[in-house]
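stage 2 :: seqdesign
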């Protein structure tokens, strides 16, 4: 039975860096956010989102992500509505993907692993953390957004301490050298889970 290792962390913590380290070791990685974006391009998803949020979030038969983000990140109830549409679709896609893998364990990388409840289906959980200052700087550089927008997104996610309390492993991702050392230690432990 393939074990599912959840990989999470707040925005800008560096989850993608860790996911790439796993991929470099030949371990299958499922990036939930990327798959969710693909699912949001499907006509049936677009129709459901239009029904829930109205015509103003649709532009040329596609979802206007900027408008939708403005709505959901300022309204927890609307965010919950969006998640109730997207999460079940991502879960089904992930379950189908896992069945095709031959590895003893796979990585499920998800920013909102805890918030979505999908942590319940993981055998082990790794949380990636970094200081708020580092995270804000990374996201501003990556997404070309304002500090206020980043802090708003951070506010909508669980705090690091909440995540750490439910995690098996924690990677402090400030310096890549230190991060790689921590990663190798965790990888060794994960490989030993199966013997």
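stage 2 :: out
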């Amino acid at each position: 039975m393939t074990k599912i290792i959840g990989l999470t962390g707040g925005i800008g913590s560096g989850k993608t860096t860790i996911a790439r380290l796993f991929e470099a070791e030949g371990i299958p990685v499922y990036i939930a956010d990327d798959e969710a974006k693909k699912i949001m391009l499907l006509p049936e998803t677009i129709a459901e989102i239009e029904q829930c949020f109205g015509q103003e979030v649709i532009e040329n038969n596609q979802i206007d992500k900027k408008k939708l983000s403005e709505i959901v990140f300022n309204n927890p109830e609307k965010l919950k509505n969006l998640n109730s549409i997207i999460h079940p679709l991502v879960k089904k896609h992930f379950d189908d993907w896992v069945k095709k893998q031959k590895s003893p364990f796979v990585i499920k990388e998800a920013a909102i692993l805890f918030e979505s409840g999908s942590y319940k289906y993981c055998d082990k959980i790794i949380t990636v953390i970094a200081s708020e200052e580092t995270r804000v700087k990374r996201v501003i550089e990556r997404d070309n957004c304002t500090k206020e927008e980043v802090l708003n997104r951070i506010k909508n996610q669980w705090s690091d301490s909440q995540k750490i309390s439910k995690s098996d492993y924690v990677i402090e991702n400030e310096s890549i050298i230190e991060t790689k050392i921590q990663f190798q230690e965790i990888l060794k432990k994960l490989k030993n889970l199966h013997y």
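stage 3 :: structure notes
- The mean pLDDT is 93.
- The chain has nine helices and seven strands.
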